[in-house]
Amino acid sequence: ENEAGGSPPCDAAHFDYLEQLRALYVKHLGEDVVYLTVDGDRARLAKCGNVEGLYSTLNFGAEGSAAKKFAVQRVTEPQGPYVCSAFFSGWLDHWGFPFNRVSTEILVAGLK
Asked: What is the DSSP secondary structure assignment for residue 6, as one 8-state letter?
């Protein structure tokens, strides 16, 4: 479930649902697969999307420090590689509206 941590409420039923999804994946794909979760760059989101036995990763945009965002990953993944599963260099565009642009300087600074 992509960004499950952002789907309230973060309660026992939520975690039961995520565990059922994990069990279905394991049933159909087996144990010899790297399973992961993907959530936003806030501790609340990472904690609520975390599933025991799955590697917790983040997605985030260019604004702000990648180092600070990866500190959030350490809340649920104290060891292992830093993983940004999706890096957003901009945002959604909508027909008839101005094109969303992010400067090269912001992109470069966001990777530091």
From this structure: G
